[in-house]
């Protein structure tokens, strides 16, 4: 016996979701837009491609395609019900929206919490819980905007729910937009109808005239939203690019563009078959081109989102009056992917973040597992959760029919899910994982940031004492790098030992205790923002010795610990520190423009102080993550040139007043204890490589004229691998406080080697 396809309500809802045809003066009977489903498939494929496969580079613009589609479909639904009372429409709309969005969104959040509880350490698990709470109330966009504007959050491991920001933007928009649409329609309905003799003879025609008249008014409202939001996005993109990316106010124009299409008269879109196809193909070409042209360095959402929005609008417009010939979007494969696009979008990113813990980040196997897992989970979610809940009014009979039709598919999907989870666990626990730099810090070639496997031979920690330093050119550049001395070799051996540690037992400070990790930092002595005018502020060591100044952001605060430990007995060591500042003066995006003012003031105060104090040595250091936040969006060689020029300007300003200017490299950006420490894990699983952007900034600084350049990579990495724990001195010492900053316990161990390096470079006397 053949079962009739169940779910009349589901079919009706699917038709309503996909848009409708327009009749004379009305939208007419709704029809399913296969090309829109295909457009959804293209959008989600681009997003997953960018996140998982690192191609296309502008694949993140798939979110902008979703925004246009959503604005068009939702506004079409609202206008189709304009004859009903506003209260009835609002109740229907928000109930329908909740049933469509909430079940799967909440299921994914619950899954994220469960996985985080099992695999994450207490600090990271707490952060994931916080992120999840914001995602659950659809405020994730503002939450992540605040975190990404936070200097101390730069480069932290990505949140598994970070992609919920776009969902939050939509839901915030739809808290307001239906009220505005219905309000405009209500105003139009309340206006006295024109009392012509013809209208007086037909109440029906008068009512239809009032309802039709509301559509242009809604179109005007949508146009105002587009213009105002676009202008605000352009302005805020110049002053706070991070907030502009996440803000509902700067994204509303994209949803408004789709809404505007839904309001325009059908007659505007009546074209012959060939012109319709040309418009549709042109729109598709614009979207695909945007994926290749726009990059992460392009201003978002203006001008970066203009191309995908225009392209999406063209594709949608081509099929408003009649279907457009678009086989690339309307085929069964693309429409099928479009049907599960919501699940694909929600599942892929948590899978990616989780698999980065168990598998090699960026490896083909990892990408394949994530992609396959997202497809399986999306299919299961679609048939087991989304469709049944949307089709809920069908009742018990509908459920029995639904089960009869789909039970085999569900059984197969359940087996596939079990096999997927078993494969991930088997692959993960069969091989210790290594961490790559966070995806948004890894530059153009994420694979470059993957650490090589640790060596198999056990480390040998030499105990020889320091010998007189000698210099040898170990790398090309203006400054020959000092050869490894006994302590340098011991540091390298300690790092090799950290690569092989199989347990967190005995590691100090306790990686689960953030307070212990941060203990002892010189910054606690007034160095977070040095009062440069006060000669006693942030001053250590021998008060009668020659002065060595450490100038930097929080990396300077880190280096200060090593400088005091290694130089304090002979020299007066002063920190000229200002946290959260690009101290070389590069034109970086600080979040709000006003936040740059204290940094500029501090840099000018340091220049005045140096001219007066004339220190023997000034050591400059700052985090290289600033090169990722250049205000003009420069990347690659352009970013390196801008970084080098900023260094050179500062050096040229103070060079007449300082005997020796030394530029040193900061610690390696990657992961911290909160990101990878977990009970039962091992430090050998917390290894990062050197990110391409870090190498870019380092090589740029090596070219600065008139300075001594010291590459301190030897303190943090060995053979391209950067562990989180060292066995230097025969004890396991935690290196990192977080993704970037160094523990004071490790800084003190580095002090003698800093003195050795400065002596070898002939900056200070032996």
UniProtKB/TrEMBL annotation:
Span list, region Disordered: 446-482
Transmembrane segments: 34-53, 59-79, 100-118, 174-192, 213-232, 252-271, 278-299, 305-324, 344-364, 370-389, 409-430
Acyltransferase recorded as keyword: yes
Protein source organism: Flexivirga caeni
Domain SGNH: 534-752
Presence of the UniProt keyword Methyltransferase in the record: no
Domain Acyltransferase: 34-381
A molecular function GO annotation: acyltransferase activity, transferring groups other than amino-acyl groups
InterPro entries assigned to the protein according to its UniProt record, in alphabetical order: Acyl_transf_3_dom, Acyltransferase_3, SGNH
One cellular component term from this protein's GO annotations in UniProt: membrane
One GO term (biological process): lipopolysaccharide biosynthetic process
Protein known as: Acyltransferase
Keyword line: Acyltransferase, Membrane, Transferase, Transmembrane, Transmembrane helix
Biased amino acid composition, Pro residues: 451-461
């Amino acid at each position: 016996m053949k079962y009739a396809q169940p779910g009349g309500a589901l079919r009706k809802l699917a038709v309503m979701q996909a848009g409708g045809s327009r009749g004379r003066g009305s939208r007419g009977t709704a029809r399913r837009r296969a090309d829109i489903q295909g457009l959804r498939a293209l959008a989600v494929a681009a997003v997953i491609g960018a996140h998982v496969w690192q191609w296309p580079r502008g694949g993140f613009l798939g979110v902008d395609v979703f925004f246009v589609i959503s604005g068009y479909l939702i506004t079409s639904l609202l206008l189709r019900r304009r004859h009903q009372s506003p209260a009835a429409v609002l109740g229907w709309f928000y109930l329908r929206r909740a049933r469509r969005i909430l079940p799967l969104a909440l299921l994914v959040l619950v899954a994220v919490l469960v996985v985080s509880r099992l695999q994450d350490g207490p600090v990271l698990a707490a952060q994931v819980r916080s992120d999840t709470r914001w995602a659950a109330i659809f405020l994730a966009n503002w939450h992540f905007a605040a975190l990404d504007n936070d200097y101390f959050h730069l480069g932290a491991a990505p949140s598994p729910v970070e992609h919920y920001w776009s969902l939050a933007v939509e839901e915030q928009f739809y808290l307001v937009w239906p009220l505005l649409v219905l309000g405009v329609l209500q105003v139009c309905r309340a206006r006295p109808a024109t009392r012509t003799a013809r209208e007086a003879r037909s109440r029906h025609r008068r009512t239809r005239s009032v309802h039709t008249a509301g559509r242009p008014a809604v179109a005007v409202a949508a146009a105002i939203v587009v213009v105002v939001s676009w202008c605000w996005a352009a302005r805020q993109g110049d002053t706070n690019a991070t907030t502009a990316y996440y803000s509902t106010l700067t994204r509303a124009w994209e949803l408004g563009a789709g809404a505007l299409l839904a309001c325009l008269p059908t007659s505007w879109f009546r074209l012959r078959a060939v012109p319709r196809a040309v418009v549709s193909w042109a729109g598709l070409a614009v979207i695909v081109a945007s994926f290749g042209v726009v990059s992460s360095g392009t201003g978002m959402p203006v001008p970066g989102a203009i191309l995908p929005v225009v392209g999406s609008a063209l594709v949608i417009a081509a099929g408003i009056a009649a279907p457009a010939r678009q086989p690339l979007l309307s085929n069964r494969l693309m429409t099928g992917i479009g049907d599960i696009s919501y699940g694909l979008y929600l599942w892929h990113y948590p899978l990616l973040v989780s698999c980065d813990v168990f598998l090699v980040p960026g490896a083909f196997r990892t990408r394949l597992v994530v992609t396959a897992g997202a497809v399986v989970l999306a299919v299961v979610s679609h048939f087991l959760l989304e469709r049944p809940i949307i089709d809920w009014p069908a009742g018990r009979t509908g459920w029995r029919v639904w089960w009869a039709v789909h039970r085999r598919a569900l059984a197969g999907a359940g087996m596939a899910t079990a096999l997927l989870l078993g494969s991930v666990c088997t692959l993960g626990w069969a091989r210790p994982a290594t961490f790559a730099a966070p995806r948004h810090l890894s530059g153009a070639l994420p694979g470059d940031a993957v650490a090589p496997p640790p060596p198999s031979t056990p480390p040998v920690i030499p105990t020889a004492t320091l010998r007189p330093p000698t210099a040898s050119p170990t790398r090309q550049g203006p400054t020959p790098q000092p050869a490894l001395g006994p302590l340098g070799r011991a540091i390298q051996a300690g790092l090799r030992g950290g690569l092989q540690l199989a347990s967190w037992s005995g590691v100090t400070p306790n990686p689960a205790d953030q307070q212990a990790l941060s203990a002892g930092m010189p910054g606690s002595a007034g160095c977070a923002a040095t009062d440069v005018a006060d000669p006693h502020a942030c001053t250590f060591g021998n008060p009668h010795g020659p002065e060595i100044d450490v100038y930097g952001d929080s990396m300077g605060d880190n280096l200060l610990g090593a400088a005091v430990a290694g130089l304090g007995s002979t020299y007066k060591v002063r920190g000229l520190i200002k946290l959260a500042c690009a101290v070389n003066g590069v034109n970086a995006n600080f979040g709000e423009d006003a936040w740059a003012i204290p940094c500029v003031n501090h840099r000018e105060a340091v220049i005045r102080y140096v001219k007066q104090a004339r220190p023997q040595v000034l050591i400059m250091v700052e985090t290289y993550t600033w090169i990722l936040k250049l205000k003009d969006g420069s990347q690659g060689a352009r970013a390196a040139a801008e970084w080098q020029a900023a260094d050179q300007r500062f050096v040229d300003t103070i060079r007449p007043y300082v005997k020796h200017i030394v530029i040193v490299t900061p610690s390696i950006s990657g992961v911290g204890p909160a990101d990878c420490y977990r009970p039962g894990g091992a430090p050998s699983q917390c290894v990062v490589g050197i990110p391409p952007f870090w190498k870019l900034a380092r090589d740029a600084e090596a070219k600065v004229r008139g300075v001594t350049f010291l590459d301190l990579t030897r303190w943090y990495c060995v053979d391209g691998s950067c562990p989180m724990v060292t066995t230097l001195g025969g004890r396991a010492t935690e290196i990192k406080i977080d993704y970037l900053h160094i523990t004071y316990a490790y800084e003190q161990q580095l002090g003698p080697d800093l003195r050795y390096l400065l002596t070898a470079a002939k900056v200070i006397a032996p």
